[in-house]
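Posting for a labmate who doesn't have an account.
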Amino acid sequence: MVNKISLLAVLLIMCLTSIFAQQKIRTTDFPTFKKWSSQIQISGYKQGEVEDESSINYTANYFSGTTKLIQIGVSDISSFRTMVSPAQKAQQYLFDGKNAVYYTSPDNSFLAVEYKQLELCVIVAATGKVDKEFLETILTKSNPKALYNLSASSSSSVKWPASIPESLKLPNAISIEKLDPD
């Protein structure tokens, strides 16, 4: 049974990473993702490993028993475009006002949502055929906006003027004062 879940995890990761664009994540870092993912509670599931796949995507695995896996991941926003290709046969729609893609097969299911403000694509995947509403519930409970708040509070070295709204402040911004003059 352990080998079966290992195989499912590897297949799911391979499936997801094969559709991601090879852009590095710019708006958050792995320690921030790890902190965010540790706060996610999925009833009946226990968090397993959290992985940094060369800063192209970060994933957190949640296990239930020996055969059920839910994976929550983030990748650069550019990866969303690869998920809407006709070859994927994915259902495109708006979820909470954001572009979304849902795909299911007998072996796995995934939901990808484009978070423009975060410059991230957030993916919830599961082993087996899982309905869209289940994945949407997990995504909603994971609260991706909290990832933005964690990034903004821990990563930016810029002292923003009070006149700039929070929604326009970029996480991971580097103050020009810290750059080399050249």
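Reply:
Got it, the structure tokens are right above this. The first strand starts at residue 46 and ends at 53.
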